[in-house]
Amino acid sequence: MRANRHAGCRPASTAAPTASPTASTAAAGGIASAGIARLMAEIVETETGDGAAARTWLARAADAPADAAWICGACGTGHARWQALCGQCGAFDRIGWTARPRVAEPVTALPTVPEKPPTA
Ligand SMILES: [Zn+2]
């Protein structure tokens, strides 16, 4: 007879975050990266089906630091894997595993579209 190795495991629902959205925003600085918070949202949604808890994790992802990636130190282009030469600018040995920079200024307005199409 095969022993159940997970007999002592607690239900996955106990792993769901119980903090309020306000508390989760305050705690977002403690998340290692946005990718980890997105993974937690997927795990919570899959394991518990708790959409509210998953959305809380997605909100944390929005406030968390960006994931690290292979970034060219010369031009800032991201690469899927390390390589000696940057495919964008051709710099040698400038690609390193660093955090992606965050956008400094938020988008405040969408570009305006004329109400009437130009007449020919
Ligand atoms: Zn480059």
Structural class: alpha+beta
Strand order of the largest sheet: 2-1-3
Q: Which cofactor or ligand species appear?
A: zinc ion
Number of domains: 2
Weakly predicted, low-confidence segments: 1-28
Indicate the proportion of strand residues.
5-15%
The overall strand count is: 3
The biggest sheet amounts to:
3 strands, antiparallel
- H and E order: HHHEEE
SS field, number of helical segments: 3
Radius of gyration over all CA atoms, rounded: 22 Å
Described by the principal axes of the CA atoms, the overall outline is flat
Entry keywords:
2 domains; 3 helices; disordered N terminus; binds zinc ion
Chain-wise SSE layout:
Blueprint: H1 21-27, H2 34-48, H3 51-63, E1 68-72, E2 78-79, E3 95-99
Antiparallel strand pairs: 1-2, 1-3
Helix pairs in contact: 1-3, 2-3
The protein binds zinc ion (ZN).
Zinc ion (ZN) binds at residues 72, 74-75, 77, 86, 88-89, 91.
Overview of the molecule:
It is a single chain. The chain folds into two domains: 53 residues, no CATH class; 37 residues. The chain is built from three helices and three strands. A hairpin with a 5-residue loop joins strand 1 and strand 2. The N terminus is likely disordered. The structure holds zinc ion. The site of zinc ion has 8 residues, from loops. Zinc ion binds next to loops.
Task: Please sum up the structure shown.
With about 120 residues, the chain is of the alpha+beta class. The protein has 3 helices and 3 strands; from the N terminus they run αααβββ. It has 2 domains: about 15-65, no CATH class; about 65-100.
